[in-house]
Prior knowledge:
The protein has 511 residues and is α+β, with helices and mostly antiparallel strands. It folds into three domains: 89 residues, Uridine Diphospho-n-acetylenolpyruvylglucosamine Reductase, domain 2; 125 residues, Uridine Diphospho-n-acetylenolpyruvylglucosamine Reductase, domain 3 (2-Layer Sandwich), CATH 3.30.465; 265 residues, 3-Layer(aba) Sandwich (Vanillyl-alcohol Oxidase, Chain A, domain 3), CATH 3.40.462.20. 30% of the residues lie in helices and 20% in strands. The chain has 18 helices and 19 strands. The strands form four sheets. An eight-stranded antiparallel beta sheet has the order 15-12-14-13-17-18-16-19. A five-stranded antiparallel beta sheet has the order 5-6-10-8-9. The longest helix has 21 residues. The structure holds flavin-adenine dinucleotide (FAD). Flavin-adenine dinucleotide binds next to strand 3, helix 5 and strand 10.
Amino acid sequence: MENLWAAAFKGNVPEILMDCCGNQEAYNEKRQVFNRRFQFRPAAIVFCESTEQVSEVLLLAEKLGYEIRVRSGGHDHEGESCATDSIVIDLSKMKKIVVDHELSVVRIQPGVIFKELVPVLNDNNIGIPHGTCGTVGIPGFTMGGGWGPWTRQKGMCCEGLVGATIVLGDGSIKQLTENGEDNQLLWALRGGGGMSYGIVTELLIKTFPLPPNTIKFNVVWTGSPAIKVLELWEELIEPDQNYNLLGTNLKIMAKPYDGQPLETSIHECVFYGYYAGTNEELWAEMDHWFAGLPPTTINIPDEDDKDDLLDFSAWDRISTAIRKHNLEGFNNVMFIPPDLDEPAPHKISSRLVKEEGLGDEGRKNLIRSLESPLIHEEGNEAGVHCYVTLGAITGHYYANYKPEDHPLGSAFPYKKRPYTVQYQVWWNTTPEDTELGVEHDVYRYTNEALDWIDTCRNADFPQTEGSFISFKDSSIPTRNYFMESYEQLKNIKISYSKDPKNRFRTRKTII
Ligand SMILES: Cc1cc2nc3c(=O)[nH]c(=O)nc-3n(C[C@H](O)[C@H](O)[C@H](O)COP(=O)(O)OP(=O)(O)OC[C@H]3O[C@@H](n4cnc5c(N)ncnc54)[C@H](O)[C@@H]3O)c2cc1C
């Protein structure tokens, strides 16, 4: 196959790693996707460096009879950017970022990840609605919708996608613009999921001027009823309330069922937030926000320590080794460990709260879902972490969203939903964990934790509906991800992607 590849390229031959010959150490490193629950052995990984090369590899893979996978940041929760015996079109070497101040857009190649993009944007005093995790790729994030610290004030990232370069199924290259003839494809890329419509080799995303000061903070409750914390958080994110709370999510840890009444049941809760303003202003808001439910701890970084703004440690994970060695009991969530972006095995499932909100019954359903005989305190101590994260969608942007101001609109179907409900289980098996002998303990609890995710997915929870494609769970029917956009997305793929053999297909693509 090696010679075939070399002969096939018109221009430079890209770097290729194969599952048979050459550098097997590099191959083994590069075949790994972020979710270590998956171990795939692609036939070849091709590191394209230009749109033309992507087109050539796409056509060649077909000629050679291989399925393709497309990978930018590799953070797909179901590992769909890699597969055994496939050819992986890896875009991680395409790393150009060009800021256009005149048009207020940034042009981003698909290999760029957030920890590379955000410092460049900061240097230019501009922002986009980015995500929370530094190693996530911009294409998968944006095409999936793109929820993050700016969502309340600026909307999902996909709303600002104003152009793209895409390679279609026949190898042709298209420039998509809002007013162009193929702008339906651009609509589909705004929240219609990755992979389905073609291979995106450049994104144009609208920028906004950064506020003079932003703060990332977290607030922890360890002894309060979770239902009260949830109620308070829901009040704070109400549309057109707390404009300067740019974005927030609330994490509530799951626990073994202990028979406590739901109204008084205590779970560890962490409110993560991004705020536009000074520390003084934030402290003043907090006096007001939390007067009726004082938190255990409030963590606000030092105003002079600007590095904290670039600290992208994921909000959702805690290192087992650190948890086990340094921390006891509930307070562990305060600690922000340095190795959060290491790939780790996990499983996610999600729902969206209906427009009218959870109400009392829905809040009880949510807390009930977090108390289960499938969760074990020993499992938590061993490093199997089960929890839900609620990500605020509602806020200034969607409260004031008028379709006439957005003629093209977007495929993202959840503009009126207050927040996402993301059930998660992560288990850490880092080298440190293995050295400490915790890996063995971890595997005693993972099956039941995965069963817990299944019960959450299947629970009767009528105050919720749908699911968020970026929190991909392959057991959820595809229609549920896209709701009212589903039929249109299928038609767009059929009409515009020039992909009659449906080679842009994985388990959760649109068809
Ligand atoms: C630790 C972690 C934190 C996260 N945090 C957030 C968050 O804060 N907010 C949020 O909204 N989501 C978040 N996510 C979810 C994330 O946005 C999605 O998993 C997203 O799809 C990842 O994009 P990627 O480019 O890194 O992944 P990849 O695995 O490379 O791609 C994801 C999907 O898109 C396809 N794809 C990738 N590149 C292209 C391309 N150039 N053209 C066409 N199709 C392509 C792939 O084939 C695959 O189907 C997080 C995920 C992880 C693992």
